[in-house]
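Form 12-C: Joint structure prediction
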Amino acid sequence: MKFADEFRDADLARSLADRIAAEAGDRHWKIMEVCGGHTHTIFKYGIEDLLPANVELVHGPGCPVCVIPMGRLDDGIAVARMPGVIFTCFGDLMRVPGSEGSLLDAKAAGADVRMVYSPLDALKIAQQNPERQVVFYAIGFETTAPSTALTLLRARAEGLRNLFVFCNHVTIIPPMKAILDSPDLRLDGFLGPGHVSTVVGIRPYEFVTRTYGKPVVVVGFEPLDILQGVHMIIRQVLEGRCEVENQYRRVVHDEGNPKALEVLSQVFKLRPHFEWRGLGFVSQSALELRDDFADFDAEKVFTVPGIRVADPKACQCGEVLKGVLKPWECKVFGTACTPETPIGTCMVSSEGACAAYYNFGRYSRARDRERALAGSGDGPVHEIRPVEVRAG
Amino acid sequence: MSEATLPPGSGAAIKAAAARITDPEQRVLERIAEIRKRKPSLREDAITMSHGAGGRASHTLVAALFGDILSNPVLDQLGDQAVLPIPGVEHLGLAVTTDSFVVSPLFFPGGDIGELAVNGTINDLAVGGATPLGIAAAFILEEGLDVGILRRVVESVHHAAERAGVDVVTGDTKVVPRGKADQLFITTTGVGVLPLPRRVAMPRITPGDAVLLSGAIGDHGSTVMLARGDVDLEAESLRSDTMALHGLTAALLDAGIDVHFMRDATRGGVATVLNEIAQAAGVAVAIEEAALPIHDEVRGVAEILGIDPLYIANEGKLVAVTAASDAGRALALMRSRPEGGEAAVIGEVLAEPDGMVFIRTGFGGTRVVDMLIGDPLPRIC
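Section 2 - Result
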């Protein structure tokens, strides 16, 4: 596959990994990947297998589904249950548990819940069902917000009166600040979010270097991108630099996408505060529709319960989202909380650290460490031999 | 009681496993591995679409509800087909299988619901080593269904049956009010015979065996999803792979290849079949990503939608586990036939950790391949 396979080359990966191992030396490195898309790639390709043990990747808060608090989801489900409503959302969200079941459960109980791949699909559904009220439950960072904004602009231009947006769009900088201010974590640098940066550019991260003295490298989503990002951070530290670098130049312009930013400011304004799972209320961290889009605002048009619901006691998604806990360190990881019966959001979304670790990472270096300790061998236990059977 | 005799999933087994381990992360992983061996229980109050996706939820439903209530020695084997003794006949068994087809849309590039029903039923018999004898087909029709559509489907059933050399020998029709079905659903039953004792059965799988795949994966599921028009993607050369595989299975067995197990990789994809093998046979399965045959169109669709081709349904592909010494011959034979032109050896069976499937990524890392959770593509067969 063109434009993808080039960034998954095993030989390049090995030589890059060797270079990282050589330059990382003996000290322990802690690098946070902010974005859930990166977390997914890291586990899917087994990138940790390639990194030396002293280079640790810490999984960050940038998973759009994971950061939605339970009360907010309950609000969405309440709207989905209203008669006449067609409730649309991205597939990841359907299995997230609310305080009384998920959207999938609401669907089984009769609510008309439909998975869409884009808010424009919701617009199409609204056009096809003029007698119904179609609600799009919008989630995501600056990456997905422009497509919601464009959809609303188009809906208004076409005079559509039955499309509504339940807006949960959030912004990436506030949670990064919250993590940097938290005393729990000592990081060496950040792998900056790739797709968010296509919209916002790389300037917004300058406070990380200036105020907090941590390097940032904006990276892409292919495995080689991530390895290169790790290498660039280590280089910065070793060379005494502290900058915002752009590894993802093939997609991200330093200035971002002015058109997308313009569309965002036309449709959205900053909320005074918004509740994040794990981080609590963070001021000016989310978007809501501007007043002239009030007719499209599901929160204003429908009666939404708006009750704040505490996360289940056993759930430690908050700590996982902040990178304080590794997924497997959560009390209920893999036992009470599994992708099939999730307790927290991190176990649901494919970008959630827990789901990524559970689905892909349960074969881990831990087994090899264990074996090394037991002195029963020198290589990985489950070395998979290359398949070399020939026909004939 | 020694550790080996502790009941799997029990508290004692979990403790014993944990006691051996000093690494905290590994201790958590061992605990999870033990817990996953527990008999599944159905927690939901209502059926959701996940229960029909062929992944873990489907398995839980079958094991915890149907298997529990209807339990008997034949059913408990949970095979693709049941094998019944024929009174008075010693060296032959009667293979029986049944399947329902609810695919939407009814017609898609490369096939339709009728062809799918015939081929799917034949394949469920063939992968057990049985020779199909006949098919029964029941049609549930929605009030208002265009007779022209029904005629097309039944003609397609006829052509598929003719091609396969297996007749539809009996059937049934029911009509339900408008809105109580979606156009038409088909339920089939297939009957075949196979020699006893069985040559192809889960318990014959042993560490060291080779794992083969009869061709490229993900064509059917991707095709149906695009045909539905839910996503604005086009891939003109993409076709369903619906195909009867009894010629291929018979050829493998007739050639004397030591086939230990076969299963067609339908709902839940190849990943689900490999997990079924790992769990039921108590082995690990290790596969190589680079060895997996996948067409570029499928890779593209999967990449854009964030779906792994390993989980996408096929309707004309089987996974075969053979003795390692016979893998080369099996591969050559598969490739020499139209059903197996793109066949590949994709991995091997390992002794432990039992119940797990791993993939070595083309990138050089290793990851777990679990059963399908949730339902990315409903109603694909």
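Section 3 - Comments
Chain B has a mean pLDDT of 90. Chain B touches chain A through 65 residues (CB under 8 Å).
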